[in-house]
């Protein structure tokens, strides 16, 4: 394809209890809640966006927390691991920090020259912290829970699990990603200049049962484009190639299209603009429930249906 993504925009997963979700991602992982809104297709459910100070594309992990939903199942046709980038000398600190928070971790392994620490969030979503030896220049969210010199920088990569790699690899190449190497049954592809935030690993596990998307699993993975005209051109190219793709959808903070790669994972192409300061100041991000204009007439009903959510003051430190 003539259009290429520069890297990951966000990863969206399904959580359980929203307060437990916020406590873990804010206090344990030290991310910032940059937007408190609702699932536009299911307004009785929160949509929580976590990221760096401004919620820049590439830093974002988002959740639909459905307390009553059953536990999902990791398997083929899913993004099975979401990885965050941390400073090169901080993996040991994170292992100890997570142990203090009573989070069970795997052993530290070295993969492609990077130290990797894997663990699950409270709903069973598999996460990893990855320390790139050359570092990551992206600025962390400086808060009171994790020291800035140890803090998560942004997304590092995602892992797609498939039973066969050929068709998935072909589509990733069509999306502008480059094959970067293979380690046993793991194939690495990179976008743009590569490095943290621009990596997808394809894990090939023949015979693995299909995953079930529900609590503790990834719903979709989003890739970046700079603006709507680029997105529209990409959509036309996908349609020309016979890919079933949605119309362009207004997500208030970006515009989106969705389609599935041949292995089964739902992918999104999201614009970098307009961003999360479009409806509230930077210092107040995440503080109040924000609704798109078409849902504002139903605000009272929506607020009544949503569970209570308490945020730590560190999410908006200059306002307290």
TrEMBL record:
This is Ring-cleaving dioxygenase. InterPro entries: Extradiol_RC_dioxygenase (IPR052537), Glyas_Bleomycin-R_OHBP_Dase (IPR029068), Glyas_Fos-R_dOase_dom (IPR004360), VOC_core (IPR037523). Keywords: Dioxygenase, Oxidoreductase. CDD domains: PcpA_C_like (cd08347), PcpA_N_like (cd08346). Residues 7-132, 154-272 form the VOC domain. It holds the Pfam family Glyoxalase. SUPFAM superfamilies: Glyoxalase/Bleomycin resistance protein/Dihydroxybiphenyl dioxygenase. GO terms for molecular function: dioxygenase activity.
């Amino acid at each position: 394809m003539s259009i290429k993504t520069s890297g990951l925009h966000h990863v969206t997963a399904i959580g359980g209890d929203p307060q437990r979700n916020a406590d873990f991602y804010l206090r344990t992982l030290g991310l910032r809640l940059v937007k408190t809104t609702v699932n536009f297709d299911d307004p009785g459910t929160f949509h929580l966006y976590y990221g760096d100070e401004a919620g820049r594309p590439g830093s974002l992990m988002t959740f639909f927390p459905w307390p009553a939903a059953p536990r999902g199942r990791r398997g083929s046709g899913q993004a099975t691991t979401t990885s965050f980038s941390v400073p090169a000398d901080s993996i040991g600190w994170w292992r100890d920090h997570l142990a203090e928070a009573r989070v069970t971790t795997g052993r530290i392994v070295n993969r492609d020259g990077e130290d990797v620490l894997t663990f699950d969030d409270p709903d069973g979503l598999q996460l990893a912290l990855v320390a790139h030896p050359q570092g990551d220049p992206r600025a962390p969210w400086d808060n009171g829970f994790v020291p800035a010199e140890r803090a998560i920088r942004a997304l590092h990569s995602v892992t797609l699990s498939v039973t066969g790699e050929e068709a998935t690899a072909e589509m990733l190449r069509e999306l502008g990603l480059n094959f970067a190497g293979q380690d046993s049954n793991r194939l690495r592809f990179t976008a743009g200049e590569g490095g943290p935030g621009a990596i997808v690993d394809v894990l090939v596990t023949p015979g693995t049962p299909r995953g079930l998307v529900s609590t503790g699993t990834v719903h979709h993975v989003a890739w970046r484009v700079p603006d709507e005209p680029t997105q529209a051109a990409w959509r036309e190219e996908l349609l020309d190639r016979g890919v079933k793709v949605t119309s362009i959808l207004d997500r208030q903070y970006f515009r989106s299209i969705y389609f599935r790669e041949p292995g089964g994972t739902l992918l999104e192409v999201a614009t970098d603009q307009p961003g999360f300061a479009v409806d509230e100041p930077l210092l107040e991000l995440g503080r109040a429930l924000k609704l798109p204009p078409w849902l504002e007439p139903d605000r009272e009903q929506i607020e009544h249906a949503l569970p209570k959510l308490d945020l730590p003051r560190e999410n908006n430190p200059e306002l307290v």
